[in-house]
Amino acid sequence: MRRAAFLLVVLIAAYTAASGQDLPSKIRGYKVQRADLTVAPADDPAANDRPADILVKLDSPTVAEMGLLSAVIEIGGEFSAMRHRGRIEFLSFRDVAVNGIAVEVDEYTPGFTFDKGQWQRLQQPVRIRLSYTKGPQVLAKKLFVGEKELTVTGTAFAFGEFRRFGMAFKRVVPIKFSLKIKNPLSTT
């Protein structure tokens, strides 16, 4: 009986440990720094249950390219890290969706430095690719017609050097986000 109870405890502990590890310990040679950061719009920092770690001001999105099978939307903006400082070498994105529809976001390669409490403007806009091959989904969710605001969700991976206690650490920090933007494709 004791063996069965011990085995059950070990299996539950192993399952809990395995299910909590959705990211490897390193990505592209950078050690993953698991941080539960809160991102909030600058005009409503109390949008979440706790104080924001990163405040974001987004520009109005613009349509950069319109093709037969896709469109590219660019969004510029600025941010302020409230508790950290460092240098970002590049940003990559995973599981980004606009109103629940998966989109591709180009890797953001211009590096930049940031200091806590200071606003940092992005040098170039972030580019989002919408595929028309998902047309039935798009029409069903009214992405192009009628929606004035879109909800963008996903995870940004900030690859860089972060300073803490006077020391610099090379890390990648996953940052989950959920933001509302104006619909640049809206006909209303």
Q: Describe it for me?
A:
- It contains 2 helices and 15 strands.
- It is mainly beta and 188 residues long.
- Residues 1-21 have low confidence and may be disordered.
Can I get a quick summary?
The chain has 188 residues and is mainly beta. It has one domain: Immunoglobulin-like.
Features of the shown structure:
single chain, 188 residues, mainly beta, Immunoglobulin-like, 7-stranded mixed sheet, 4-stranded mixed sheet, 2 helices, 15 strands, 13% helix
Count of folded domains: 1
Low-pLDDT regions:
1-21
Provide the residue-averaged pLDDT.
76
Order of helices and strands: HEEEEEEEEEEEEEHEE
β-strand percent reads over 45%
CATH architecture classification name: Sandwich
User: CATH top level?
Assistant: Mainly Beta
Number of helices: 2
Largest sheet: 7 strands, mixed
What structural class do you assign from the helix and strand content?
A: mainly beta
CATH topology: Immunoglobulin-like
Helix content: 10-25%
How many angstroms separate the termini?
68 Å
Provide the gyration radius in Å.
20 Å
Q: What's the overall geometry?
A: globular
- Strand tally is 15
List the helices and strands and how they pair.
Layout: H1 2-19, E1 26-27, E2 30-32, E3 39-41, E4 54-58, E5 62-66, E6 70-75, E7 77-81, E8 85-98, E9 101-102, E10 104-105, E11 112-114, E12 119-121, E13 126-131, H2 135-140, E14 149-164, E15 167-182
Parallel strand pairs: 2-15, 3-4
Antiparallel strand pairs: 1-2, 4-7, 5-6, 6-13, 7-12, 8-9, 8-11, 8-14, 10-13, 14-15
